[in-house]
Specification:
The protein contains eleven helices and twelve strands. The chain is of the alpha/beta class. The longest helix is centred in the last third of the chain and has 17 residues, at 254-270. The radius of gyration is 22 Å and the shape is elongated.
């Protein structure tokens, strides 16, 4: 491996800018004799509503104190509870460029770092992942649904998540150090379709920030923010339903609630004669399934 060490006034400990554009004016970086093409940051405009403690917990994990390195938190909760929204909103509030990487069971180590692609005249172009792009530009990366990824893929990130703060690309033959401003977190769903993380990875992904479902007022505010054109009566019905579902430990998240309310509003355009409670019930049945639809009618 080529390790270029400290030095150049580029965007990381060792990268030299060779072309303008993109975040901070840099989208192509040269490390030694290897040119790395960076991906653009994600443009996501989100707002976090309620549960201010979670914002403060995540911000604290990313702070540096006395020269110490930032931590690498994992945000845990049920699907649709707002984990990614929380991470995006906090990164934005800190003025960080934001990069997302969607993990799957098929994610390979090279997908996380650098992938070679065929360029013009059959030349090889080395394309940085969103993780490496954030590392070099000093942005924040969110590894979404990280526990869907295998241990082999996580192992390639192990040196990035401790005091070494680098990754190695076998494909490009280089070692890449993270910018001091680089921040990392991963979201993890609580369901049965995920991998159990090995202890040496879990110990690097600290602290754990747990996202639970919000109370009724907060969920109603989230519905109103996401669906400003939907009748308030629909939103009120759905906010009530979500609280009942949470109390009965039904699998129904705020994301599901947004879909139910949105479709109920759209149904009103096609079925103006259908009363709002029946529209909401039909929407719940079509979004969540027959059992949830009947549950909706029975409980409300």
């Amino acid at each position: 491996m080529k390790d270029q060490g400290k030095g150049v006034q580029g965007i990381s400990a060792q990268g030299t800018v060779v072309q303008g554009k993109g975040v901070q004016g840099k989208n192509v970086v040269e490390i030694g004799s290897v040119t790395i093409h960076l991906c653009e940051p994600d443009q996501i405009d989100v707002e976090w509503i309620g549960q201010e403690d979670l914002v403060r917990q995540l911000r604290a994990a990313w702070k540096t104190q006395g020269g110490e390195l930032p931590m690498n938190p994992r945000i845990v909760g049920k699907p649709g509870s707002g984990k990614t929204t929380l991470a995006c909103a906090v990164a934005r509030s800190l003025g960080q460029a934001l990069y997302l990487f969607q993990a799957t069971s098929d994610t390979r180590p090279e997908d996380l770092i650098i992938t070679p692609v065929i360029g013009s005249r059959n030349s090889i172009r080395y394309m940085a992942s969103s993780i490496v792009s954030a590392m070099l530009c000093g942005g924040t990366v969110i590894l979404d649904e990280g526990n869907r990824m295998s241990e082999k893929s996580w192992a390639s990130l192990a040196p990035l998540l401790d005091r070494r703060r680098y990754v190695e690309s076998v494909v490009a033959g280089i070692k890449i150090h993270a910018h001091p401003n680089f921040r990392f977190c991963t979201t993890m769903n609580e369901d049965m379709s995920t991998f159990e993380l090995p202890e040496y990875i879990q110990s690097r992904l600290q602290p754990q920030v747990f996202v639970d479902f919000s109370d009724r007022d907060e969920e109603l505010a989230i519905l109103r923010q996401n669906l400003p054109a939907t009748e308030n009566e629909i939103l009120e019905y759905v906010a009530d339903f979500l609280q009942v579902a949470h109390e009965r430990e039904q699998e129904c998240s705020i994301r599901d609630g947004i879909n139910i309310a949105h479709y109920a509003g759209l149904l009103g355009q096609e079925y103006p004669e259908l009363e709002i409670p029946l529209r909401v019930q039909q929407s719940a049945r079509m979004v969540m399934g027959q059992r949830i639809g009947q549950y909706f009618l029975r409980e409300l």
